[in-house]
Amino acid sequence: MVPSPPGHMEQSVKLIVGLGNPGIEYQFTPHNLGFLTIDRIANGLGIEVRNRQCRALTARATISGVSVLLAKPETYMNLSGLSVRELVAEHEIDVQRDLMVIYDELDLPLGTMRIRQRGSSAGHNGMESILGALGTDEFLRIRLGVAPDRKVADSVQYLLTPFRKVHDKVIDEVLDMAMQAVEVVLKEGPAAAMNRFNRKNEAGDEPAAT
Predict the structure, then answer these.
(1) Would you kindly state where each structural domain of the chain is located, as residue ranges?
(2) Angle CA(74)–CA(88)–CA(17) in degrees, nearest 5?
(3) Which of 165, 184, 187, 208 has the highest count of CB atoms within 10 angstroms of its CB?
(4) 127 Cβ partners below 8 Å, 6+ apart?
(5) What pLDDT does 200 receive?
């Protein structure tokens, strides 16, 4: 490793990964809320997530004074871990401290959000792939609720079908909330973000400091 010049402090980069499926047909589906959040963050910064590396579209940015790498794996959801593992290795990411994964959660009501620092995949194939590829569950995740407001015959079909127009407002609000959560995590830390955004838990949800 080449030593840093005197007075220079190395700054680690935070890897922020949004999960989804590439392809215009999946763009506005529940399963792509992770991608949509990354796009919302990028739009707010006036940048585009279009650099290809490690089987993902990426963009460098600075948020709240913190250097970040935004990433959208192009492997399709079930193989997200392949891309994330390569990004982690390429950028020497400390997974527990510097990785953040944003994805849809079928067990949470549409429009809600929960932040966790560890835990299982809860049946989410993208998260299952990442957990397997990294060999740890010790990293921050922002879970965006997509549970349908009606009974559906096929949950997989539901996740891969575009949102209805009636949901535009709630989707817009949850994307803004996710963007704010990312900013709070970077500026004040995960505990502050969990205390602020998980306080709205309804009875039966996990405790705020999970």
Answers:
(1) 14-200
(2) 45
(3) 184
(4) 19, 80, 101, 103, 121, 141
(5) 60
